[in-house]
Specification:
3-stranded antiparallel beta sheet; single chain; 6-stranded mixed beta sheet; globular; 11 strands; alpha+beta; Transferase(Phosphotransferase), domain 1; Phosphorylase Kinase, domain 1; 2 domains; 8 helices
Length: about 260
């Protein structure tokens, strides 16, 4: 459960080491802070709506305390200061192709553990994807709650607004529904599929799948070497949330029930 770890608003020296990402108005930096490396997320310029979203992100992440979620340490001048977790993103790990079966399962188990905890805290991530999963040795961590929905807070995103990444987005989230935690389970299934096959589900046809049900569009089956996980994939990626796993714990149990393999 939440340990009450404080997230402080501080005015201390931040020294940028290098730029990790520079995407429009949002910059992510590796920095030195209090004699340690940290990751800083900040805005470049005046963007009131994005400033509000950063404040919301801080509120959301500050109440999460879990070994598979990157912790927020402090806020400073509107910037978010996160713990630095050396390693690679899952997106980087997938640049060389599919991962081994057991490695893929372990990574998604860590992600599901994080989601199970977050959902109990009424937080839906809404953007589970390889670039938001950090691999640090044998442990994987979920990060970037910038699109997250906290059911305990007043919404700042308009109804039917589409936020997320289509390759890993559930059909209902694509239609603007951001209040169903089962959307995160669809995304977890999509990430697992990507790890096992080297490509996200539906590939270039994903928008065709999301826009409208098309019985002619079929998900390519898993390779024979990992076909034992087909049932988990099929259920996680079902169009109707009622037919999916109903909780992250249930999906974890289903994965545990599949015999391990190479």
């Amino acid at each position: 459960m939440y340990s009450g770890r404080p997230v402080l608003a501080l005015k201390t020296m931040l020294t940028t080491v290098r730029i990790l990402a520079d995407q429009g108005p949002v910059r992510v930096e590796l920095a030195r802070w209090r004699d340690r490396f940290v990751v800083v997320k900040r805005l470049q310029g005046f963007y009131p709506m994005l400033e509000e979203r950063l404040r919301r992100e801080a509120k959301v992440v500050s109440k999460l305390d879990h070994p598979n979620i990157v912790p927020l340490l402090a806020t400073e001048g509107g910037a978010l200061i996160y713990a630095y977790c050396p390693g690679v993103t899952l997106a980087e790990a997938l640049e060389d192709g599919p991962l081994r079966r057991n490695r893929s399962v372990k990574i998604i188990q860590d992600v599901l553990s994080a989601l199970a905890y977050a959902h109990k805290e009424e937080v839906i991530h809404c953007d589970v994807k390889p670039s938001n999963i950090l691999i640090k040795g044998e442990v994987s961590l979920l990060t970037d709650f910038g699109f997250a929905k906290d059911l305990a807070l007043t919404a700042i995103t308009g109804q039917n607004a589409m936020l997320g990444t289509p390759n890993y987005m559930s059909p209902e989230q694509f239609q603007g529904v951001r209040t169903d935690p089962r959307s995160d389970l669809y995304a977890a299934g999509a990430v697992l599929y990507h790890m096992l096959t080297g490509e996200p589900p539906y590939g270039r046809q994903v928008l065709r799948f999301l826009v409208a049900e098309d019985s002619r569009l079929k998900l390519d089956p898993l390779p024979p070497a990992v076909s034992s996980l087909q049932g988990v994939i099929d259920r996680a990626l079902t169009r109707d949330p009622e037919d999916r796993f109903q909780s992250a714990e249930e999906m974890l149990e289903a994965l545990a029930a599949v015999p391990s393999g190479a």
